Predict the structure.
Amino acid sequence: MKERNYTELENTARKVRINALKAIHRANSGHPGGSLSVTDILVALYFDHMNIDPENPKMDGRDRLVLSKGHAVPALYATLGERGYFDVEEMMSLRQIDSKFQGHPNMNKVPGIEMSTGSLGQGFSVAVGMAIAGKMDSSSAKVFAVTGDGELQEGIIWEAAMAASKYKLDNFVAIVDANGLQIDGNVDDVKKVAPIDEKFAAFGFNTITCDGHSMKELCEALDSVDHECGRPTVIVCRTHKGQGVSFMTDQAGWHGKAPNDEQLAAAIEELGGDR
Amino acid sequence: MADVKKIATRAAYGEFLVEEGAKRPELVAMSADLSGSNKTDGFEKAYPERFIECGISEQDMYAQAAGLALSGKVVCASTFAMFAAGRAYEIIRNSIGYTGANVKICATHGGITVGEDGASHQTFEDLALMREIPGMAVVNPADAVSTKALLGKLVGTPGPAYVRLGRANVPVIYDENQTFEVGKAITLREGSDATIIATGIMVSEALEAAETLSEEGICVRVIDMHTIKPLDAETIVKAAEETGAIVTAEEHSVLGGLGGAVAEVVVRSCPVRVEMVGQQDTFGESGKPADLLKKYGMTAEDIAAAVRKVVK
């Protein structure tokens, strides 16, 4: 088992959450709920697991991540900035005119963004295409597709899941940020997606379920995928929308609403302060 | 016309894929359960390791195509035009167009010459939909020779493209030595009384119309507008200035396709009368291709009638 400093990863996640919220506040627009629920997943991937080089974002043989739930991009920008792809201050222009930091990811504007997403479901299928290309090239690199749980209501997800299984894509890892909420309410009230793991298992996936806010569980789940052979994996991460900020936690209302000055200050304080 | 060689543009596409696959190891072909119909089956046999059978999931195919292209592949992804431009529209727009992915959407069975399958399979909207996407090249070749040549150019140029191919056998109008450039129209016949600007399978109909009209003393220019985007505005303006009237001809809705594109150029640069031959804002139906073209007003005779109207 790899030795890790989980506290350091947790501290990085704390900074990512603060920067994502600051950028959303500055723009007075954006998606805090899903950004906070996916943060720990992104930090575990970019700071512990993925084979990447921020100095050379297009490095041959790199692992790639497609943020299929593109609305959570503030968390991805903050993660990439923290990791050194660009100065994290740059992302404070999020959603503003002339900014590289678009409201949903644009791969042609920001280094480290592998796919332009925003229209749900497509990123998952694009990532499957990338993994097929990897198999054609006998590459050992992995492709990670990060989706929401509400996003699983998109039919293209299941079309692509069949393809991932057919092509035995053990280089493809779907990660579901299962925060249980979507804009119109509880995911399973709006259109039931549960049981997520059993559905993917029926589609031929190796399935893992973990606490999406435990760095230890996330890292161990990702480690275990390295030994998987001949089938794709899904990691269903149980998360909370708005994780880390008590008044945003598990509130569908914080899906796409920016915090005001007082709310931002309270959130930063709760996240341990802006150090 | 009895001894004119007839080949479907989809068949030329199938041959192109096999030939190009030998030269270009990064070429990947995809199909959504129609490889015999869209003619990707030859490529599948020749290069099985570079062929992706997507099953009946066109949306997934075009998103996967983007993923393959963004991993260095050159992708030709095929299904019927209805299910490419229609069903997968928003995926093509966001995952291929917006990213600039090197995907060639090779859509077969465009227009009414799908024939017996009827309205659900006959698309008249694809050229309009595709030309709205920023950065998307839109090509509609007239015959087998131009199909192969234009595909060769497109595959050698990074970026998204939509290529509309047909089901029915159509006359070969070009000889093998003809050169083609994407975005550069070809003037097939000189004339001064009016200009017929045609695309796809309507080019041969336009040539036939020109022949009929010349017997009546009407001398028309015929242009093959094989590329709808980027549009050869220079050739259109020149035709407007020199011939004073234009008839467009397409196996597509008169709304938003070639006719619309030509009119957009003409009204801004040299307003002249423009008549549009094409599908008149209605759905198609089952029938033999030739009967359907006749019923829905897309024959040489319809083009000739439109020319008579504009030259008066």
Notes: The two ends of chain B are 29 Å apart (CA to CA).
